[in-house]
Amino acid sequence: MQRHAKKHRKVVSEESWRAAAYFAVWTTLPETFSAAAVLELYRRRWQIEMAIKRLKSLLGLGHLPKKDPPSARAWLHGKLFVSLLVERLVEAANAFSPWGYELGVTP
C-alpha cells in the first residue's frame, strides 16, 4: 500500500492500515470447516491456479489449435507430457551439484 501510495503521491489512510491487518475469504463451505482449514484449501487452490497459469504461458495451453476431439486430446496429452518432463528436468537441475554433494543440505 505504501509503495502504491507513494508512486501516486497519495497518503495511506488509517482505515486502510487497519483493514490491511485482515485477510477475508468468502466461501460456500459449511461452518464446520475451521478458518485454518479454509485458508489451507485456499492456499492449495492458489497453487493450482499458478500451475495452470504457467502451463498456459510457457507451453501455449491457452489456445487449442485442434478442432477434432481425438486430435485435441492427443495435442493436450503431448503438452502435459512435456510439462511433466520439464518439471523432472528442473528438479534434477536443482539437485545437481558440480562439487559432488547435494545442494541445500546442511550437516
Task: Summarize this structure as a short list of keywords or feature phrases.
mainly alpha; 2 domains; single chain; 0% strand; extended; 107 residues
Largest sheet, in brief, is: none
**Average pLDDT taken over every residue:** 85
Low-confidence stretches: none
Q: Terminal Cα separation, in Å? A: 41 Å
Q: What can you see in these coordinates?
A:
There is one protein chain. With 107 residues, this protein is an all-alpha fold. It folds into two domains: 1-62, no CATH class; 64-107, no CATH class. Helices cover 60% and strands 0% of the residues. The chain is built from four helices and no strands. The protein has helices spanning 2-7, 14-19, 35-59, 69-95. The chain is extended and about 55 Å long. 0% of the residues are buried.
Per-chain topology:
Elements: H1 2-7, H2 14-19, H3 35-59, H4 69-95
Entry summary:
The chain is mostly helical and 107 residues long. The chain contains four helices and no strands.
